[in-house]
Amino acid sequence: MRRFVGSYTYTHICVSRGTIVNRNKNSSSFLGGGHSFRFNRRTFRVQKDMVKKWLCILLSLFVYTSVWANKDSLSVAERNALQGFNDTIDRLAEDFVEAYLVVADPGKNLYSVLGHCALRLKCDTFGLDYIFSYESEDASQKVLSFLAGHLKMGLYAIPVDTYSQVYQEDGRGVRQYHLNLSPADKQELWRVLDEEKARGEELDYDYYHRGCANSCVRFVNKALRGKKIMYAPWERDYVTGRELGREHTCNALWKRFWICFISGNEIDKPLYREAQLIMPEDLVSAWQKAAVDGRPLLSSVPEVLVEGNPQTGNTWFTPLVFALIVLLISIANLWWKKPYWDWLILGVQTIIGIVMTYLLFVSDLCCTDWNWLYVVFNPLPAIFWYWRRYWVLPYIGVQVIWCVAMIYMLLTNQVLVDWPHIVLALAFAAVLLKQYLVKTK
Question: Which of 148, 184, 259, 275 is the one with CA 20 to 30 A from 50?
Fold first, then answer.
């Protein structure tokens, strides 16, 4: 994650007057799209420029009024020029805000593997151009706080140049799509985003319910004030968050492997239609096929803000390959009888089990409720290791039943875990079987 530090001028849109009322409010350090970048503190001063622009507008209106009073004496060309000026004034008074959906490519880190999206609002008339993005504290710098669920997040307004620079340094592409909202809806969207930003940066970190994509949906729906986004027919009425995550991490199998350990049953609940829009790419696809007030909601052709580096796919050493190697060694160790291998497997299983126990019973991190991996990866075998002759055989039976059930769920497209986790569970069962055979001799 990148750290942004700066200040932002709130720009409340006054729809009835077609003006913008500014009030300054300094923001503290915040993150942008999963980054850790700091720039020098500065204040974005727009008041002086606004005064100059308004003086120019008033002077133009004075000249315009004087000329219009004598329009009967003007030539046809002069009248056409005067009418064009009049149309320009009317347009500036109404449609002076541009809105975009900004999408960033997936990154190399765990927290950026799904990409990122935000809303950009631009007003050339008043010299304002910001990307409004939900950001959190840097999880890579506060790992324990992340696991405890104590990270904070908030909506931040980031200058476009700074936002683009951060992603360029990270090698991630950024593109934007024009939002075809009415002038009143765009002004209302700016007001909605200002109100959300005013809540500050002390919101509890929630990457699932307050993620980038579903937040964009929520903000736009609120700005529409009762009007509905008309979506194209959905391919699936219901889908789970885990299934969506699995579909979007095909090129990041190791990250998918670890995400499964910290994601509980909350992401296994079915999402109905619009609630499925939790991934940036899914949001783009759905909005390009959607309409508001009879016009397409999102442009079909993006404008590139930052050219990204080509993304590398998976190497041959995937989690499944790793799990198969561990399983083969564990089975071979039934004859090799090397004790250090057993202690290595038991140690890794115990460490993972302790972390999962903390997430399940102590942590406030979102989506860390019951996890089916806890049946296999828990610290109970290490705690009761001395009495293993009494429980190891029934526990092996539980693991085998668990593996059969999880394989059935995968084959029927009811994803709860992934193949590498099942193979590792079988490897751990082989280690326990060796211990049982040695203990009973």
Answer: 184
